[in-house]
Model the fold of this input.
Amino acid sequence: WNAIGRGLAMVPSWPLLLIELIVLIIVSGLGQLFHLYFSMALGHLANKHRVMMSVVAFIAISMIVNFVSGFVMITPIFRSFFDMFETMPDLQGGILLLHTVFTASLVFSAVQLAAFFFGTERILSKRLNLE
Done:
């Protein structure tokens, strides 16, 4: 515990990092929940084998999201952005990198959450008969 206390004393912005991490966990968890709901809504648009189609939709959406995030990570702009942190002092660059990664992950998770939420809402309100 003493080592953790000394480490936190070296990082003055640790409360902000903790808040960013908590918000990221909540938004990411909600995004995964709505990913599941969106997959079920898509699967129930099929006439037969609705559960199987929900599983297929879940896997397909996961593959698309992973492909997009992987594609973004190999772009030259993304790579040059992280190369910039190598020129900074260790602690300052590491803290800035953490803030940047948490913020980018939060934005990506929020976009996923919004897409899954509005997609689910649209399918449930316009396409499925829930009466």
